[in-house]
């Protein structure tokens, strides 16, 4: 269309006439050109021209003729080709057809068109293919797609992070195109290194690279200019403005305004006091800049004395301070921002605690005695120093004050000692405790002193330091034998080393010291000294060699005991040892088991039965001596019974109480002939009950509270008394002792439940006191009646009252946890909408029970055990809503025994050896099992479950195994009996004991025997395991026989587990610690055998009896932690107020106790032996109504052990004060004035009286006493007027 539109125009040279223009000729070219091309004979030439873009119009481009070959003739003009679609040539160029000169028709733009082509034909038919290239010039600057760009960059972006930027575009080509970029930063400091740089290349994209970390807090935005430049000269440039916005990150920790805060605070400042305010700032934004405060408890204030408010930073006191414990508190307070990964900083807070006078003086002791401890020699003279005493006050300034005035106003006093010691001041708060009188340890070995220091404060504070000063021993006492002459006998058959007797001398000097350590030695005839020896430590006399009665029938020696003092002291006694003839027949009892009965409290000397044994030997070998021991299998002398050693009469030796002592005594009788051979029999004595116990109340004082709205018929409280007797003698009945308020109540004679039978609304008393007595079935009354105090609670609403004052439930001991036991119920008052709640207030220290607070259902919380606690007494309280008034009831829970414990033998197997000549009826063994259950579950019957022979039987109740026939003819040398112990529970439980009975025959060959038949040794319970205690040795009776190596061992038993024996040497050593309180005597057997062939092996055994010596390893214990007594004030000292009792598991001097008062020696003393507290100064309740004593009990062991208990004594009021009229002085008249003419009934004055007594003793009656009075004023004061005024006045006076 463009060519047709322009086809009618002609353009030629510059003139207006002449031949037709090229435009006109061009109309003909296409037809002719087609013809010429079709002939294929016209030559074609190429001509390439170039022209710069942007030149003005008519700029010469070139000559078409230059495309013709050299030497060609004139072309005669040119015809231009438009047929190729090159119409733009004619628009952008002027071509002169006549000459072929080409000029520009306008300014060319290479970026619009960079190349032109057309064909020019001469009239001769030659064709010149012309190509014009537009040469580029730098006419365009680089341009970015947009002028501005915004980037968001995190300030935590690491260096090297690249951000893509849009590249600049330049239409020019080649070197005139975009050649590079430069980065310009607006407003940046020239001294700082750049934050960004550009990275580009070909064909890599343009990137902005981060060189350093950004910091939003220093600069939130960065303005950059990216400049693009080309390769022209001069260069052309394009710019892109880049705005970098720094995104905030949590990269700043909170910063405190100060590195350390200092504050001062009084030590009596209450919790909540503001200490200081901390402030920390965080330049981050949003949650990253929100600061919260906390105390670093790991680095400071682990005890939580301070707390800081999280938001405000206010530091407050949380717990009371104590400057003396810590005068400066350093806290590390952390400030933490709210970032996802919070930043933390800390500051130090120093809180100086200001002193308040709240400390008592401190007493410090430095002992100046030789031992450096609280011990002073009994040889100390008056004036000798005992200790240096310094007093100080921990309050600020206390030390300085003590240095200035010799104690800082602190007075020091010495109490106690009865003048044996005194204080001597030495200035600067220092005193010396000195001896002031003679000392004698044997008369008094302990002084209880008290140092009392009082400061000069207002009010003054005081401190007390108890001082137990012991008197150290001097060797001023010689050992003493209990008797001057000792006699003993020993058989001539005794082996060397046989114990003859043990002598003991006592030294009154301090036990455990060298002064009281006794060593023994024998002196006398050389022949006797060759036969006997004495252990220097134990005093045990033993044979040294074999004895020969025919050569020497008696041995006379002198035993000398020397102590370890310097110089030593000594004492001597005479020792006579008779050598007796040997015998070969054992005594035989008529019966193996004796039974008897005895009423309790039978007088000593009463003999319930007699045992009888005979011996076939003659002379002294046939003389039998009887011995009595406790238990069937133990060798400890009986304390309750004694036996006549000649007649066998068993008699009572001490008072026996069936309730406190065993109800059945199992005794072992041993009959020994003159030669030392013995036999034994068993005795069981049943103790019959008599009515010898008074009913005893479980509590001497009962206290309960009831509402004044309580209705008649309500159970108030349950008093319980028990009688230790059995049968009818143990049945208790109750009755109310008539009194002021007894008519308001009644008591159930069988249960002890007290009921209310009258309304209480009319009573003005706040407390009612009742007395209840108890009687047993034998007519004995309770020694002490129960005092019941019923507090009347005056309240607007009545409390919830339990339906019963005492509940009794039972639960089997195997009940699972959370099992219901029973329900208690308290009734709400009428018209009450409050809810009743329940709780256990006492009686469950181990938390074995729980109660539903809403329904009152009591449940088990832990597993119960009847054997540990068979009866539990709980106190349940009920509360009505939030009322302060409670009511309570008592719940007795009986834990029912189930058969969960089988009988237990002391050992699973045992052996016994008998002679093959024993007659039928001989008691071979007593099987004894124990069952922890009670009742039928604990009753045991014995039987032989399996036996190899009918030679044995067993008593089902006693467990005595008897020989039923002789075993002389039996070839069997050993019998095995399986003894079963079965209880009577349902189902029954059993256990078994395997008893091996060995039949011993008289051997003709060499016999292996121990040197002693019985070894005895004493060992302290403090002996360490591993210590050797005794060596046993065996040998053959045939001096010509040669035995192989002997092997020693211990027969397994409960007593032998604590010991071991060296199998080669026979040394017995201790394997574990002994406990005297558990076992005083341990008996076991040592076995020895040869290592020969089994058929030729020889065996022997011996008994070892270990007497455990007590050590002071148990401290005394009071029966109660606190004791409470009441006594009435009296102008005459009352005497014994009450008795406190302590027990010590140790024995001898270790268990001997002495009591001392550590406080309040003004009114009371204590009997050091019995623990009786004695009032020795008259008491006045109006001066002091309560006394608190501290009692110390100490044993006599070394070192001594002690314990303390608190005693509270309440002084009851006695009506010993007369009422006084405060309106007039005592003995003076009260003068009043009244105007004449006053009508009757006019009030003249009000008279009231005061009384210092309490209770009913302050109720005052006022009467007008006159001989000719007209008015009668003898009235009791009304409760709401004078009486109340008197009561109020009395209370204020108290």
From TrEMBL:
One of its GO terms (biological process) is homophilic cell adhesion via plasma membrane adhesion molecules. Residues 1-41 form the signal peptide. InterPro entries: Cadherin-like_dom, Cadherin-like_sf, Cadherin_CS, Protocadherin/Cadherin-CA. Residues 78-144, 145-256, 257-363, 376-481, 482-589, 590-697, 698-802, 803-905, 906-1008, 1011-1118, 1119-1221 form the Cadherin domain. It is a single-pass membrane protein. Its main location: membrane. Residues 1269-1294 are annotated as: Disordered. This is Cadherin domain-containing protein. It comes from Calidris pygmaea.
């Amino acid at each position: 269309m463009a060519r047709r539109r322009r086809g009618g125009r002609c353009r030629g040279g510059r003139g207006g006439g002449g031949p037709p223009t090229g435009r006109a000729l061009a109309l003909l070219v296409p037809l002719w050109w087609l013809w010429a091309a079709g002939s294929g004979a016209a030559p074609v030439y190429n001509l390439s021209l170039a022209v710069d873009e942007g030149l003005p119009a008519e700029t010469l481009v070139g000559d078409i003729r230059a495309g013709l070959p050299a030497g060609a003739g004139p072309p005669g003009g040119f015809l231009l080709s438009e047929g190729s679609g090159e119409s733009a040539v004619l628009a952008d160029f002027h071509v002169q057809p006549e000459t072929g000169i080409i000029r520009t028709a306008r300014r060319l733009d290479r970026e619009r068109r960079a190349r032109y082509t057309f064909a020019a034909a001469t009239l001769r038919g030659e064709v010149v293919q012309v190509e014009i290239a537009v040469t580029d010039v730098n006419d365009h600057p680089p341009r970015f797609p947009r002028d501005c760009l915004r980037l968001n960059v995190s300030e935590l972006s690491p260096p090297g992070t690249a951000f893509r930027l849009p590249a600049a575009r330049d239409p020019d080509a080649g070197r005139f195109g975009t050649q590079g970029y430069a980065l310009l930063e607006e407003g940046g400091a020239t001294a700082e290194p750049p934050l960004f740089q550009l990275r580009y290349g070909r064909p890599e994209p343009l990137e902005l690279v981060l060189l350093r970390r950004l910091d939003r807090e220093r600069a939130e935005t960065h303005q950059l200019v990216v400049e693009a430049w080309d390769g022209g000269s001069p260069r052309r440039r394009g710019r892109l403005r880049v705005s970098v916005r720094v995104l905030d990150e949590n990269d700043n920790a909170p910063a405190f305004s100060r590195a350390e805060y200092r504050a001062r605070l009084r030590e009596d400042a209450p919790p909540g006091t503001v200490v200081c305010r901390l402030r920390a700032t965080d330049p981050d934004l949003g949650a990253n800049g929100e600061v919260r405060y906390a105390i670093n408890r790991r680095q400071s204030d682990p005890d939580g004395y301070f707390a800081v408010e999280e938001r405000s930073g206010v530091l407050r006191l949380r717990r009371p301070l104590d400057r003396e414990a810590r005068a400066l508190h350093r806290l590390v307070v952390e400030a933490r921002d709210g970032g996802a990964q919070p930043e933390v900083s800390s500051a130090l807070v120093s809180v100086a605690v200001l002193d308040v006078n709240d400390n008592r003086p401190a007493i410090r002791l430095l002992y100046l005695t030789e031992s450096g401890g609280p011990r002073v020699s009994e040889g100390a003279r008056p004036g000798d120093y005992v200790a240096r005493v310094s007093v100080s006050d921990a309050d600020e300034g206390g030390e300085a004050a003590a240095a200035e005035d010799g104690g800082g106003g602190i007075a020091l006093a010495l109490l106690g000692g009865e003048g044996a010691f005194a204080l001597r001041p030495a200035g600067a708060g220092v005193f010396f405790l000195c001896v002031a009188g003679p000392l004698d340890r044997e008369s008094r070995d302990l002084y209880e002193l008290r140092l009392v220091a009082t400061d000069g404060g207002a009010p003054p504070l005081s401190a007390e330091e108890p001082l137990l000063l012991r008197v150290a021993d001097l060797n001023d006492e010689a050992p003493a034998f209990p008797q001057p002459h000792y006699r003993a006998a020993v058989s001539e058959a005794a082996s060397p080393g046989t114990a003859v007797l043990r002598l003991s001398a006592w030294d009154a000097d301090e036990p455990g010291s060298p002064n009281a350590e006794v060593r023994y030695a024998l002196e006398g005839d050389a022949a006797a000294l060759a036969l006997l020896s004495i252990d220097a430590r134990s005093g045990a006399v033993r044979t040294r060699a074999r004895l020969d009665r025919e050569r020497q029938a008696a041995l006379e020696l002198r035993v000398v005991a020397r102590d370890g003092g310097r110089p030593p002291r000594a004492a001597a006694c005479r020792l006579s040892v008779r050598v007796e003839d040997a015998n070969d027949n054992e005594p035989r009892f008529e019966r193996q088991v004796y039974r008897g009965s005895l009423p309790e409290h039978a007088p000593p000397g009463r003999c319930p039965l007699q045992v009888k044994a005979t011996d076939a030997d003659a002379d002294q070998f046939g003389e039998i001596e009887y011995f009595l021991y406790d238990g069937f299998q133990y060798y400890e002398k009986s304390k309750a019974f004694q036996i006549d050693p000649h007649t066998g009469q068993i008699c009572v030796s001490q008072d026996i109480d069936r309730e406190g002592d065993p109800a059945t005594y199992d005794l072992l009788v041993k009959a020994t002939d003159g030669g030392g051979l013995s036999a034994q029999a068993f005795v069981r004595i049943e103790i019959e009950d008599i009515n010898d116990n008074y009913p005893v109340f479980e509590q001497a004082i009962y206290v309960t509270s009831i509402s004044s709205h309580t209705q008649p018929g309500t159970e108030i409280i349950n008093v319980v008394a028990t009688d230790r007797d059995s049968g009818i003698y143990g049945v208790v009945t109750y009755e109310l002792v008539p009194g002021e308020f007894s008519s308001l109540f009644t008591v159930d004679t069988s249960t002890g439940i007290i009921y209310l039978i009258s309304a209480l609304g009319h009573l003005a008393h706040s407390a009612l006191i009742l007395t209840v007595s108890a009687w047993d079935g034998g007519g004995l009354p309770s020694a002490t009646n129960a005092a019941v105090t019923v507090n009347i609670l005056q309240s607007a609403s009545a409390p919830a009252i339990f339906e019963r004052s005492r509940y009794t439930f039972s639960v089997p001991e195997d009940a699972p946890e959370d099992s219901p036991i029973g329900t208690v119920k308290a009734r709400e008052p009428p018209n009450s909408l409050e809810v009743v709640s329940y709780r256990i207030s006492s009686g469950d220290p181990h938390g074995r029970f729980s109660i539903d607070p809403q329904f009152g259902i009591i449940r088990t919380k832990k597993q119960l055990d009847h054997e540990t606690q068979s009866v539990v007494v709980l106190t349940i309280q009920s509360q009505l809503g939030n009322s302060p008034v409670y009511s309570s009831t008592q719940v007795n829970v009986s834990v029912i025994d189930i058969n969960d414990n089988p009988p237990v033998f002391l050992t699973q197997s045992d052996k016994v050896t008998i002679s093959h000549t024993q007659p039928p009826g001989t008691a071979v063994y007593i099987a004894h099992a124990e069952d922890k259950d009670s009742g039928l579950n604990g009753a045991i019957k014995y039987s032989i479950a399996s036996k190899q022979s009918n030679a044995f039987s067993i008593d089902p109740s006693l467990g005595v195994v008897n020989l039923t026939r002789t075993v002389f003819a039996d070839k069997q040398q050993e019998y095995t009996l399986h003894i079963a112990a079965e209880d009577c529970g349902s189902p029954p439980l059993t256990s078994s004991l395997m008893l091996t009975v060995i039949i011993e025959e008289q051997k003709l060959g060499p016999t292996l025997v121990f040197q002693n038949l019985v070894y005895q040794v004493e060992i302290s319970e403090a002996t360490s395991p591993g210590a050797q205690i005794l060596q046993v040795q065996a040998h053959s009776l045939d001096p010509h026989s040669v035995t192989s190596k002997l092997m020693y061992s211990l027969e397994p038993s409960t007593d032998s587990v604590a010991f071991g024996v060296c199998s080669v040497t026979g040394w017995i050593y201790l394997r574990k610690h002994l406990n005297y309180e558990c076992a005083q005597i341990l008996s076991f057997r040592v076995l020895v055998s040869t290592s020969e062939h089994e058929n030729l092996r020889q065996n022997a055994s011996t008994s070892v009896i270990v007497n455990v010596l007590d050590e002071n390893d148990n401290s005394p214990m009071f029966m109660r932690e606190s004791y409470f007594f009441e006594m009435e004030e009296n102008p005459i000292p009352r005497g014994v107020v009450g008795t406190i009792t302590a027990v010590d598991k140790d024995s001898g001097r270790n268990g001997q106790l002495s009591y001392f008062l550590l406080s309040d020696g003004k009114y009371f003393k204590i009997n050091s032996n019995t623990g009786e507290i004695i009032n020795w100064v008259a008491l006045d309740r109006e001066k002091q109504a309560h006394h608190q004593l501290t009692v110390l009990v100490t044993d006599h062991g070394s070192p001594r052990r002690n314990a303390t208990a608190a005693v509270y004594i309440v002084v009851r009021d006695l009506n010993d004060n007369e009422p006084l009229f405060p309106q007039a002085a005592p003995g003076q008249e009260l003068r009043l004035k009244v105007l004449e003419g006053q009508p009757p009934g006019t009030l003249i004055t009000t008279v009231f009286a005061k009384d210092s007594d309490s209770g009913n003793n302050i109720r005052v009656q006022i009467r007008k006493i006159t001989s000719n009075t007209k008015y009668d004023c003898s009235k009791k004061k009304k409760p709401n007027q004078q009486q109340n005024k008197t009561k109020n006045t009395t209370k204020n006076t108290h």
